[in-house]
Design brief:
The chain folds into three domains: 1-109 and 147-167; 178-190 and 230-425, hypothetical protein PF0899 fold; 193-229, no CATH class. 33% of the residues lie in helices and 20% in strands. The protein contains ten helices and twelve strands. It has helices spanning 12-32, 39-80, 97-108, 114-119, 122-125, 241-246, 250-272, 298-311, 324-331, 375-378; strands spanning 184-186, 191-200, 221-229, 231-240, 289-292, 319-322, 353-354, 357-361, 370-373, 379-392, 402-415, 421-425.
Length: 428
């Protein structure tokens, strides 16, 4: 992470941009660790987080001061406004009849305050020498009529200033979750090569039991080299120099959104990438097992898919990727006595499980389809570079005062055993 820059001397608006930038740096630092934390990294993270929390506290304090100052200015301005009853109209102006009557009354009618009317009231004068008695006195101010003015409201008068906050609500997008169940490691290679054992036991294990004095039987092993290319996933956005200069923190907002766009596209390709360059080959592009629902329930179909991974792929699945709509019939299924078959307790702690497997609910997978598999043991992501943000000039950017912000990363998906995964189809 970059060195810490003090925020003590920043003004209110600049401090807001500073906080956004530091939050972005912390997010990048967390992603760059790849989930591997030691005491030094935790100390750095704790220090940076504490600094941002201190800056946020100061930002809130400055905001309070800013609002107080604005109220004081507004009050002072109101006190300095001239009395319209004493204003001298410009030469030749005509005073409306209603305003003329109001001015006449203000100049001729003696208006008494509430205090003056109380002193002159009969109730006060009747106190006499009984002022020490503890009794109440009733005083009615029926004759109190202050000078009336036309009501001035914000709908028809002078609307108050209302500065927009720095809060930005992002467009509704799904939360990328697929990479949480897949191992990820960095690589310096442009393609990933590995060996796969493609022949074992020659279909059936050769005889290993022999009689005394006879030769042992031969077995067969064969390996095949597999190659998976590292492909590039990227996007860019043009932005004017004025936009970057005039709006504090806009660069951080743009960077975060571009990175989010990349993660969403990455999730799509991990599931349905065609394998035709420049796309990676996603899980559903491989020769995985297929389990059709038929007349089964969604839950039954998923269980049979788990069994297919065990029986055909000799692998124990660890996760299920399913569209939220296909989970609804499972979680809302009730017995004939009205009891839920799916216990809400299985969703406790933020981790939803189905048949004991982690359930990843995502609209990235098509409704009606689910993917069951041993993601952690038989698949892997190799990243040649982390998510990188670059700013440069593109085409006529120099003469049009624009900058092009580019976000990209390179990675491959290796699926080591196709039959360790099963696709469910026809889900309700």
């Amino acid at each position: 992470m970059p060195e810490v820059n003090t925020f003590e001397n920043l003004d209110y608006k600049s401090l807001g941009g500073w906080i956004i930038e530091k939050n972005r740096e912390i997010q990048q630092y967390i992603k760059a660790t790849g989930g591997k934390w030691d005491d030094d990294r935790l100390t750095i993270l704790k220090t940076r987080t504490a600094e941002v929390e201190g800056a946020q506290k100061r930002y809130d304090q400055l905001g309070t001061v800013e609002e107080t100052y604005k109220r004081m200015v507004a009050q002072q301005k109101a006190l300095e406004e001239p009395d319209p009853t004493k204003a001298i109209p410009f030469q030749g102006a005509t005073i409306p009849a209603s305003q003329e009557e109001m001015i006449r009354r203000a100049q001729t009618v003696s208006v008494k305050s509430i205090g003056e009317m109380f002193i002159e009231s009969t109730a006060y004068k009747s106190m006499g020498s009984h002022e020490t008695e503890r009794r109440g006195y009733t005083f009615a101010a029926n004759d109190y009529q202050p000078v009336l003015k036309t009501t001035m409201a914000t709908t028809a008068g002078y609307a108050p200033p209302n500065d927009r906050t720095s809060i930005v609500i992002p467009y509704a997008q799904r939360e990328p979750r697929l990479t949480d169940i897949i191992p990820v490691d960095p690589t310096a290679l442009s393609s990933i090569k590995y060996m796969e054992e493609t022949t074992a036991l020659a279909g059936t294990n050769a005889q290993v039991s022999i009689t005394e004095g006879n030769a042992k039987f031969e077995n067969t092993l064969a390996f095949t080299e597999r190659t998976v290319p590292v492909e590039t996933i990227g996007t860019w956005l043009p932005v004017t120099v004025q936009q970057l200069d005039d709006v504090p923190g806009i660069r951080g907002i743009i960077d975060n959104r571009l990175m989010e766009f990349l993660r969403l596209k990455e999730e799509d390709l991990l599931l349905t990438g065609t394998g035709t360059p420049p796309q990676i080959s996603g899980y559903l592009d491989h020769s995985v097992n297929t389990q059709a629902r038929g007349v089964d329930t969604n839950a039954d179909c998923v269980f049979k898919a788990i069994q297919a991974c065990r029986v055909t792929g000799f692998a124990e699945p660890d996760a299920i990727v399913m569209h939220p709509d296909n989970f609804t019939p499972i979680v809302l299924y009730k017995s004939t006595t009205g009891e839920y078959a799916f216990s809400p307790l299985s969703m406790d702690g933020g981790v939803t499980r189905l048949w004991g497997k982690t359930l990843v609910l995502s609209t990235a997978i098509t409704s009606g389809t689910a993917l069951v598999g041993a993601f952690r043991l038989y698949s892997h992501i190799s990243r040649k570079m982390g998510m990188t943000i670059q700013v440069g000039l593109n085409a006529s950017d120099f003469t049009t005062n624009k900058r092009t912000i580019l976000a990209e990363f390179r990675e491959s998906l290796e699926v080591y055993r196709d039959t360790a995964f099963t696709k469910c189809t026809g889900l309700q």
